[in-house]
Amino acid sequence: MQLQLYATEAEVHSVGLFTEQEIPEATRISSMFSCTKASAAWFEWFFSVPLMEVPSLPFVVYVSMSHIQAMLYRLTTSEDPAWDKQVLRNTADLLVLLDKTIDVFCKVGEVYCLRTDDSDGTVFLKGARILRNVRNFWEPALTQILNNNLPTPNSQTSQPLNTMPPLEPKMMMDTNPVLGPGFDLNDMTWMTDIFGPWDT
User: Fold this and answer.
1) pTM for this predicted structure
2) How far apart (Å, rounded) are the C-alpha atoms in residues 100 and 81?
3) Apex CA 50: angle with CA 49 and CA 53, to 5°?
4) What is each CA distance from 9 to 23, 44, 68, 75, 76, in whole angstroms?
5) Quick one: 46 exposed, middle or buried, by C-beta within 10 A (0-12, 13-18, 19+)?
6) pLDDT digits over 5-17, tens only?
7) CA 140 to chain centre
8) Comparing 145 with 98, which gets the higher pLDDT?
9) Where are the alpha helices (DSSP H) in the chain?
10) Burial class (CB in 10 A: 0-12, 13-18, 19+), 157
11) Exposed, middle or buried, 99 (CB in 10 Å: 0-12/13-18/19+)?
């Protein structure tokens, strides 16, 4: 229930990320920060679930996970000049959260033996591989964006830690060579392939 409450809160406050409507700056930034806090709280609760109980979580938890990852990606790549990326990084660093989620999936995959229909091994090990591909593809752009927002003692002499130009979010989704063209975390097809159909 707590996971669902935080997921709902994050969805409500994400309106500013997925709308073209003009929202007053104070309201917009407040909603973005509230979305960030709710997302961080969601992951905190997820990571507190004992490993042996993770396989028994309802499918909606993984749907929420996918949506929250997409929201954090939007928050990180937002070009809103009023949005403080360092606050985001200190509250909910998407790359760190992906690492922890992959670790959970790997550990659960070692003790939960339900296998997939193909040769990808257990359900959660397949999920871990997919999330690792997502993380590896997102890392260059996310690292570039976050590093560019770090305060530096001398901006004239400091060099960026990653010189690769950030990719546009749409381009990243459409040209992903690992996950396939048009991959989108809001598309539940890949999730149902791993954890089963939504309506069962």
Assistant:
1) 0.73
2) 29
3) 90
4) 18, 15, 11, 15, 18
5) buried
6) 999 999 999 887 7
7) 15
8) 98
9) 2-13, 25-48, 59-77, 85-91, 94-111, 123-148, 169-174, 189-195
10) exposed
11) middle
Structure tokens that stand for 113 in this block: 């033996």
Query: How deeply is 52 buried, as exposed, middle or buried, from its count of CB atoms within 10 A (0-12, 13-18, 19+)?
Result: exposed
Tokens encoding 165: 């130009």
As a whole number of Å, the end-to-end CA separation of the chain is 20
The pair of structure tokens assigned to 65 is 């996970």
| Nearest to 92, CA basis, from 65, 111, 118 | 65
Q: Give SS3 for 84.
A: coil
